Amino acid sequence: GAVVSQHPSWVICKSGTSVKIECRSLDFQATTMFWYRQFPKKSLMLMATSNEGSKATYEQGVEKDKFLINHASLTLSTLTVTSAHPEDSSFYICSAHSGAPYEQYFGPGTRLTVT
Amino acid sequence: DAKTTQPTSMDCAEGRAANLPCNHSTISGNEYVYWYRQIHSQGPQYIIHGLKNNETNEMASLIITEDRKSSTLILPHATLRDTAVYYCIVRVGDYGQNFVFGPGTRLSVLP
């Protein structure tokens, strides 16, 4: 199957700093990318949907000014957690969709720890 | 999308078949049954999906009841590496929408 990568795979940052997570589709063009968040022992929760070249659509309760999403190209979407706090510590997962039926693939996830 | 119910956890002996049930009594005619799994600290991995016929691939088999209100994912010869959380998701065909994940079933394959 197609490959989606995330970078970094894990990151530790200090409270108040910002951290950027990249999601790349390696062998296909992703018209849509999704960002999920997963707290320990919980299921994945959708944070936002991004389409290339347009503003992201955020789920209710997700602060768009805190979680900045940029989908500047068909192979790259970035999630920036601004002014991170310990409660932002979580596992962040992206998925990418090519636009063709049944071509949606998940990335390996990024573990964020805010100290 | 229709809601699904799955057991919270299951155990299976290594080498035996793992049968994971899923109830989706409110499924609509155009909704598919998808199965994903998530091994600890990894992203979800696609396993299989089907509409109404039974499906089989190199990973698993999917058995859907005739009334489509429930299904079973079968891992024919479970290994320790199959220990994971298994998610049954019911949704329309994949034309670019997100997936909605429930709590899933935590499968533990025991030696």
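qc> Chain B touches chain A at residues 36, 38, 41-46, 49, 87, 93-96, 98-104 (CB under 8 Å).
qc> done
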